[in-house]
Amino acid sequence: MKKIEFMDTSLRDGFQSVFGARALTDDFIPAVEAGAHAGITHMEAGGGARFQALFMYCGESAFDMMDRFRAAAGPTLKLQTLARGINVVALSAQPRDMIDLHARMFKKHGMTHIRNFDALNDVRNLVYSGQCIKDAGLHHQVSVTMMELPPGCTGAHDVPFYLKTLREIIDSGLPYDSVCFKDASGTSHPRKFYETIKAARKLLGDDTIIWAHTHETAGVGVTQYQAAIEGGADGVDVARTPLSGGTCQPDILSLWHALKGTDYSLDIDVKKIMEANRVLQECLKDYFFPPEAQKVSSEVILSPMPGGALTANTMMMRDTGTLDLYPKVIEAMSECVARGGFGTSVTPVSQFYFQQAYANVTQGPWKKITDGYGKMVLGYFGRTPVAPDPEIVRIASEQMGKPVFKGDPVDELEPGIPKAKAILEKEGLPVTDENIFIVGALQTPGGNKGLDFLKGSRPINVRKVSHEEAPAAAAPKPKAEAVDVPGEYTVTVEGKAYQVKVEAATGAVQSVQPAAAAPKPVQTVAVKAKLQGIVSEIFFAPGDAVRQGETLVILEAMKMETPVVSPCDGKIASIDVEKGQVVKPEQLVATIA
Question: Over 90: is that where the pLDDT of 273 sits?
């Protein structure tokens, strides 16, 4: 009987797939210890969205979290993280020096394995990052990313396409220790999993470890794993309740049960796993579990949305008050996939698809090409599996003012470490490798989330179930009493205005003077939001001079930063929003005099 290896993904992918990656370290450390006590020897501990989410939503350093994870897990556990090719764990593509720093920092902070994937299956994006992972002394698990295409689409994401990608990985010479077939949306047909891994086994030989990854989002995760195991997979990703099933990985006990009576088994102590489950449930008893995270979402079969992105997006839609739009956006996403070149729906491409679908729903189809989607179809992240729709490429090029790019993305990026060092020195912050990576990895067009964190801005936006009573309504302020004061009146006689002061007690006229000319009203221009979002940055204050086209505020929605710009030259008369405020379409943002 073949023993199937497994990795417990509860405390990384589970957090992302249920809470949008927002979970506090203090809350889950007992679950790490319980998992180790239950005999689990391989856990996912960070990377992916769990890197930036800690800084942006949890008020914590991801490096501190990894240190605490390692201490709780003990010295021998395999701890794995997730990297996105040339993006590694950053918000955008990274230059070579930052890619190398990523691997060294994760090794320093207790990680032993890194799974490395590229959403476009452009092997060029894996070569340098994979080499850095190996050079740092880490286990490099290279990935081929999978999904099911929307109905009527052909040309990629079939068995020949995945084998072609695998051959390119082998021929590139990039070093790897194992291979993963990764389906973040859980939509691939089980038969395709079986045939792909069976053919990959022949290509790789018997000594290479083959891993399978999926989600239960579409309700076929356990079936996919059974097919992958029968095809020759050595290991799979599973999770513990309550972070299993739904948008998460298949449940460890469910797969153990499904393998009964076959030639395969999971080597687990069921009673100990159940006790570890109870500890995890207790750790998360105060967390808000979105209902969409705990059910089958069959619509993703037609619009492949990863479990880890589905709830991240719905959590952000809750933040901006647009959750009612989700059904329309997920439906519109299918066209974005079909016309975008068939990049795999996994971070960051899944977010590009969803952002573009969101813009198509809220602003009209293709009226606004979003930054990520536009750069993808124009080639700035690498080659898409098939050529994008030429009409979409034309629209993107015109709107963004960018030509089609056909080079290697990493060759276009300037070194990042010198820039990060300069920022830290200017701000008087310690120039450590950790701080360099934080500042370099969390730069956005509208600011630097890493710098904000290091300067003390540590917002916590973790949704928990509150049992507190709502505060009592404030008592109404008493009305001011009337007082006996002289009255002043403006009287117009033959077209001339006079200011007349009258004694209150007798009504006698005290004085008559020509009235001062009324000041001419100041003409102001109202600046309104075009879409719904959260105010993430404000760059001006009342009285500041501003020029036409300058950015007044940044609105953030669905990880998109949208600038609200001045329509004219002038002075800021008012700023009518606050940082962190949810702004609706056509809401007043500022006035300019």
Answer: yes
